[in-house]
Amino acid sequence: MNLTLLLSFVGLCLLLAVTPGPDSFLVLRYSVVGIRPGVAAAVGSALGGIIWAVVVAAGLAALLEQSATAYRALKLVGGIYLVYLGVRALLEHRKQTKATEAVEPVVASTRSAFIAGVLSCMFNPKVGLFYLAVLPQFLTEVTFVNTLSLGAIECLIAGMVMVALAFAASRAVVMLQRPKVTAWLGRISAGILAALGLGTIASVGSSA
């Protein structure tokens, strides 16, 4: 792969990374809780992308492209998981608003945020299909190493952008110092996650 193709690919990755999607809303949701959960969700999502890159590089993701049933099944699971994350986040906020000042508020651990990031990305078949369809366009020679290298570059760029988003969102919450604003941001991001999940489930039903 020459320098021109590499720069073009990096530009495309940057454009995709700043485009809002399930992973970025997930990072925003955890960043409202704290900077560590937000960064953990971002790192987890990036790791999920690397797993997809390995799968695509090994040629296994071609099964998703050839099997409409496998694609719909994985997409359905991903949609259900997003709805679960959104509903769980809304329930956590309800618990926080009912808690007294003497009770420690419900918070998300870095481990749960990391796992949520990994699963959110892994249950999104569009990531695998993107790698499968786009990566070869930027390779002069399609090999396991070359494909995995581009996948790793995309994951690194996406991870850095989402970590920056986590820091920005967490910093904004700290600067505002308004619990009501924090709560509303959490509800909005949770609602968006649930809406994205419902939309994914609906699209599976309409395409069946």
From TrEMBL:
GO terms for cellular component: plasma membrane. Its main location: membrane. It is a multi-pass membrane protein. Signal peptide: none annotated. The chain crosses the membrane at residues 39-64, 111-135, 147-169, 181-204. It comes from the Bacteria. Pfam families: LysE. It is found in: Cell membrane. The keyword Membrane applies. One of its GO terms (molecular function) is amino acid transmembrane transporter activity. Keywords: Cell membrane, Membrane, Transmembrane, Transmembrane helix. Coiled coil: none annotated. The keyword Transmembrane applies. PANTHER family: ARGININE EXPORTER PROTEIN ARGO (PTHR30086), ARGININE EXPORTER PROTEIN ARGO-RELATED (PTHR30086:SF20). This is LysE family translocator. It comes from Antrihabitans stalactiti. The lineage of its organism: Bacteria, Bacillati, Actinomycetota, Actinomycetes, Mycobacteriales.
